[in-house]
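Format notes (please read before filing issues)

Several people have asked whether sequences and structure tokens are stored in separate files. They are not. Every record keeps both together, in the order shown below: the sequence lines, then the token lines. Line labels are part of the format and must not be stripped during preprocessing.
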Amino acid sequence: MEAIQPPQRKPARILVVDDNQDNAFVTRELLRSAGYEVHTAENATRAEKLIRQNPPDVILLDVVMPGKSGIELCRELKNDPVTRLIPVVMITGLTDRDDKIRAIEAGADDFLNKPIFPEELFARVRSLLRLKEFTDELESAEDVLCTLALSVESRDPYTSGHCERLAKYACQMGQHLQLSANELVALRRGGYLHDLGKITVPDEILKQGSNLTTAQWEIMRQHPVTGESICRPLKSLRDVLPIIRHHHEHWDGSGYPDGLRGEEIPLLARILQVVDVYDAIRTIRPYKPAQSHEQALQLILNGAEGGLWDPTLVRLFLEMMARRQAA
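Then the structure lines:
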């Protein structure tokens, strides 16, 4: 019987960005000799196009280029959630201390000094490829959890699309509040993962929705704790854990699982609460019809006045919705 050969891994993709074509050619040929797939760009505009088309595993970026500098491009890449995890090596002169400081502030992962020595080039690239492989594994684990969360959603046909809508609403609310990029990422992930713990809730309880017995309600109330426990091993989700655990707390302390009150409830969890309630009111469920946009806003306002939601956040949510309608 013929032995089954393991699948061959694709060579790592490296992008060399340097306006000096001689330098770019030498670096490209060195890396190709080591088995890497190498592409070159003579300026930031060309590099941005190649990165959008097919993101590389490592970017070697010259500091000084015509037009947008390497440091400016590095800063933009590191501020973009789509590209921030791509390792960037800045290529500098031996005495360019100021350039190195600015590159560190822009988020560069490593440096190469001119002239470039092959042994150092290979060592830097290998090191950063190991880092990229690790971060890719983390992203894969997050994708698995998001897939599990969507499988929970699919168990109830009435909640179809709920996670995606929540992620969108939460990010829009975060942008309205001018939150940081990291907080926006946490809100997006929280939109997908907030109800992951319902994976342990039986179908008959999940689909019943209302009129639960005391025993059934105790099972349902555990899903935030379960979801937090599932996600806790991933350090990349540490900003999402408070959203998962506390999105059912109430402003007056009557929520669960910890009975937090007022600003004891983390801000991101309070944001998800508001958009979660809005989407639930707007969606048909077995125990209720879907309400109009205006009815949903009034019910949320009533809930805030009754002590359920953060009244300031509700006011800002209404303000955001009014601006969206006007636009």
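For reference, the curators noted about this record: The longest strand covers residues 88-93. Confidence is low (pLDDT under 50) at residues 1-7.
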